[in-house]
Amino acid sequence: MERVFVFRPSHLLLLICFLLLSQPYCSSSLSSFSSFNSSTPLCHSHQSFALLQFKHSFSIEESADSDNYCYPKTNSWKMGTDCCGWDGITCDTMTGHVIGVDLSCSGLVGPIHPNSTLFSLRHLQKLNLGYNDFNDSTISSKFGGFANMTHLNLASSFTGNIPSKISHLSKLVSLDLSWNFGMRIETPSLKRLVQNLTHLTELFLFGVDMSYVSPNSFMNLSSSLTSLNLFECGLKGRFPDNIFHLPNLQLLDLSYNYNLTGSLPTYNWSTPLKSLGLSITEFLIDLPNLISNLKSLKKLYLRRCNFTGSYLAHLPNLTQITSLDLSYNNFGGQFPWSLLNFEVLTYLDLSGNNFIGQLPEVTTNLTQILSSNNSSNSQLVNKIPSNLEHLLLSRNLLNGTVPSWVYTIPSLRFLCLNYNQFTGHIGDFQHNSLVVLLLNNNNLHGPLPLSLSKSVNLSELSISFNNLSGNVESKIFSKLKSLQYLDMSNNPLLSLSSFTFATNILPKLSSLSLSSCKLSEIPHFLRTAEYIEDLNLSKNQIKGNIPKWFLEVGKDSLYSLNLSYNFLTSVGHLPWKYMDILDLRSNMLQGPLPVPPLFISFFSVSRNNITGQISSSICNLSFVSYLDLSYNHLSNLIPPCLGNLSDYLIDLDLRSNNLNGTIPTTFAKGCYLRSLKLNGNQLEGLLPQSLVHCRNLEVLDFGNNKINSTFPRWLETLPELRVLILRSNKFHGALGNPKTKFPFPNLRIIDLSHNEFHGCLPTNLFKYLKAMMNASADKGELKYMGDYYYQDSVTIVMKGFFFELVKIQSLFTTIDFSNNNFKGEIPKAIGELRSLKGLNFSHNNLSGHVPPSLGNLTNLEWLDLSSNKLTGEIPIQLVDITYLAILNLSENYLFGQIPQGKQFNTFTNDSYNGNLGLCGFPMKACGNDEGQQPPPPSTIQEDNFKFENGFHWKVVLLGYGVGFMFGLGLGYLVFSSGKPIWLVNIFYGE
């Protein structure tokens, strides 16, 4: 996952508020209580006492990063001093009554009880308790008792319903209930607020749950309203158009209401609107019309929106815009930089589009422009954007070098150019304003500039997946005391030796990724990483045991540790009590199974040399969601209690061990299991029918065991089942009678090969394989099965070889019923499975003709019908399968001329051997007496059709074109161990 902003929890709310420039109310509402008068008389003693009692009802969490605004204001509250001089307190200049309390971002921790002394301050006019932690307490109805209240800010961690008495505050001018993600408001309460608060000018409900509120409830908002923020409130339905006609409205933010629809006025629209946010809504937006009508607009946030028309062709100048977000809209072409006024621009986010070309040059630098190889195509800007604070261009197709003016912007705080095609060196930054620098996933080369050491405010740095080289000097980081997130992974020419052996640097580091950096040991500077939370040292050359000193690192903070793909032999006791993710796969770990921390949710030790049995203590991991112990030497029984973990367990992988006995039968109702893989063990007995309780199951892999059963018909009750592998067991009997229905609408991979099934192929099964029918649905975005934490993998037989699909593409489809005792004809219904990539019915007793409907399988890449009793001619329709790379029709009774053209011109004799009646290329030429029907099957001894070990495939490379193999290569398709390395390297690289 790409991480952009990393901050301490005590500052999270304030800093998010600051970063979301679409929320100017943050600064206004936080500063609305800042005017104090030093000439006020002494405050009343009972009010002073009430404030002190209020202070003592909380614990104070003081952050080491306290600044001018965020600090414990109550530290100045002392008994015997005038409360009118305390931080955050405002008194009336005539009466001495406390009329203002501003304790925003003061580190208050604890609930506010209904009997709090705060409610005795009856003269309060302004109250700001925002950005504290009130332990999810509810808002007391007593907040509605402040009759003179004009400004109320409760933007903290409150939950529950908004009390109706808030609507009694008839003098309210500003109401801020933002950041209360556990709070909800219903239509009656909202209507009362709208009707009674007639003087309201600011209403901020950012994050309040309004999913059951009708947007029409906002119809009668006060005409004096200047700011309305409904960011991420769960609103749905059509938003009333009249809001856009409010005469004083300057800020409107409806962003992140995914199901909120509406449209902007197209005529008679005059508004003073200065800031508009419609990101991630269903609003229809005509961007040229919007820009033309909103003459006062300064800030525009349209991330992932629905646009009408061609936005670039008719865009007017955006010269008045200071903040612009058009990210993740799939816009393409060159962005018209000349439309922007770089002199006033402070925030620009064009991430997640398909913009091409280079960043513009500055007109004053004529020498650089003229010397540019692409000067004829260069776009220009008039002036260095000296006020720019955020330049976010991630995930585009931008190329060329980063222009020099980017490194000279004095105010630049966030520079995100990651996931592009930039080349050249990283330049020298002239100022120390940077907070976030993301340059990862480009083609940058050269050394890491020493000028980075001046960026003393830098909190996040990512330069991974580039071609950087040279030595990384520890002095670059010695002054970066604020750095919390660092990712230098996958720069193969970058040497980290002097950096990793440094000490006493990066004291606030919370996330570090040094994957694929050729490290031979764990970096020494981690000894002092007191706050480390996320550590990735995977794919290095770390050998031997984990050093003892490392077991003390982040003892109370480390939640994610990735040491996979190293050469570790032992890890010892794992002391991290709060660890959530532990990845030790693909090492050389020996001995018994390591015991992970109790609260782990992801634990993988696959592909090691671990021996012994799985102790029942594994069931103490009551919160584990992903458990992967595959490819080890574990033996004995699977602990029966593992089935009881299904309340949290999502993926369980025990493949390729030496486990025996039966599969646990205790999968309970409400089971969350999505993937269960037990392939390659010695398991016996039946499949547990209690798996019907696992309604989310997508992958079941029981192949290569000793399970002795008939086909488990109850599997059809699993609506999400996508992969079913039962190969190489002792399954037997018929799959069903002719009337049996097999509702497997999502099934994409089914492998029943090498069992003892008999009877006819189930026609109804093929009729219900909906996911294999719609070829057009496979043309979209490449997706893989699984989720962010864990992507499924299975081993299948594809084109005659065992392949491990390390990731399973959602479009991959295959059927393998080979090496059974199926008889009868091949159902014509298979011709409807137009998404099918592979079909194997070989080594059965199938008879009749090859159905011409197989020619409809235009995505098919391998077809094996060998070693059956098929008769007749090869259908000419098979020539239309243009992606067909492998065809095996050998050892049947086919006759007549072999079809010619397209892929059929690439197949060799091996595709047709044993069919004495066939003629034509590549076999013998057809003459007058050639191509005759061979003797009927009954005259051939049955022994010729016994199952054979191995395969008679011939991999045909000529004329193969751009079949599915290329896609699988991109998806990390690899041979399983023992297959020819040269062939792997030809197709898939190292």
Q: Oligomer, anyone?
A: single chain
Number of helices: 10
Helix content: under 10%
Largest sheet: 32 strands, mixed
CATH homology superfamily name of the domain at 1-234: Ribonuclease Inhibitor
The top level CATH class name of the domain at 1-234: Alpha Beta
CATH architecture of the domain at 1-234: Alpha-Beta Horseshoe
| Principal-axes shape call | globular
In terms of DSSP E residues, the strand content is: 15-25%
CA distance, first residue to last residue:
25 Å
β-strand number: 66
Description:
It is found in: Cell membrane. The chain crosses the membrane at residues 951-975. Residues 1-29 form the signal peptide. InterPro entries: Leu-rich_rpt, Leu-rich_rpt_typical-subtyp, LRR_dom_sf, LRR_N_plant-typ, RLP23-like. Residues 45-92 form the Leucine-rich repeat-containing N-terminal plant-type domain. Among the domains are: 1-234, Ribonuclease Inhibitor (Leucine-rich repeat, LRR (right-handed beta-alpha superhelix), Alpha-Beta Horseshoe), CATH 3.80.10; 723-736 and 750-960, Leucine-rich repeat, LRR (right-handed beta-alpha superhelix), CATH 3.80.10.10. It is mostly beta strands and 990 residues long. The model is unreliable at 1-40, 365-377 and 938-990 (pLDDT under 50). Strand 23 (361-362), helix 6 and strand 24 (380-381) form a beta-alpha-beta unit. The protein is built from 10 helices and 66 strands. The strands form 11 sheets. It has a 32-stranded mixed sheet, covered by helices on one side. The protein has a 7-stranded parallel sheet with strand order 52-54-58-60-62-64-65, with no helix packed on it. The protein has a 5-stranded parallel sheet with strand order 41-43-45-47-49, with no helix packed on it.
